[in-house]
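Lecture 7 notes: from sequence to structure.

We start with a single chain of 318 residues. Read the sequence below before looking at the structure.
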Amino acid sequence: MSTSRLSLSRPLALLTLGAACVLPGAAEAARVKVAAVTASSSYPADDSVNYEPKQLIDGKSGTSWVEGDPGGGLGSWVELDLGGAQNVQKIQVWGGMWYSSEYWARANRPKSLEIKFSDGSVQEFAMTDAQEVQVLSLAKPVSTSTIRLKVKANYNGSTWQDTAISEIQVFDAGADDQVRPVALSASTTTAADGDGNYEAKNVADGLVDTMWCEGNAEGDGTNEWLKLDFGGPKTVSKLNLVNGMGTSLSLFMKANKATAATLTFSDGSTATVEVKATVMPQTIAFPSKSTSNVTITFTGISKGKEFNDLCISEAYFQ
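Now the structure, written as tokens:
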């Protein structure tokens, strides 16, 4: 791999590609917190950019683990330590280097992954050659304390022989206190550009460096809205939010942030909440409500230094 890398301080982080705002595989399952991750090898750091396995669990698609083995990466592996036995139901994989669509095409991507569990059992999954989240659903839940993902076959990159994976998420079969939307919509959306898109679905992907940004050129985001549809009545009492552009503090300062919002429930009732203008994740409590959807209308805005667009990186209810 060439040591000449683009700067990671680009104005907008890479965002997941695609136009649909209906979320595939949105059935409720609890996210498993990974305790540690190791790898067979890692590509040496260059220009202050590293490719260590910890990048796989940092909640950012724009950072990647890249193997450092000779050849194209066949046989390279990463192993997730779950900190104890978990009843694993599915694994989500961001194959390739998601730093940008250009970089994704230039580096190798896994074509087939062998998944090995702590009891020695193995399952193999085929991957599509597309810059989209790959959902590896197990035939039945597996109790395991570790998960090793081994590269069995690759899609070749146009420039580099090294194989990359940007993020991995693990879900168990237990009940989740997060109320997951089955579909999302927004009042307006910034048009996609070379870094990706800014669609509503980005607020529900578990990544802080993907985001929805409103697209009203005449305003600053005041009265723009996000709507989360749960597919049926759910009881909610907390809004978890990553405000603004959550990639880094420097990017957070560039775009508009919310300072207040009105929650509108499916029966027409509302709740007014204050929002902190901070890059840190925040939990906003409100009176418990049974509803099949919630529309978040942003009524207060803190201006950014460069972009006059309101951005929200993550939004989900409990």
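Residues 101-106 form the longest helix (6 residues). Keep this in mind for problem set 3.
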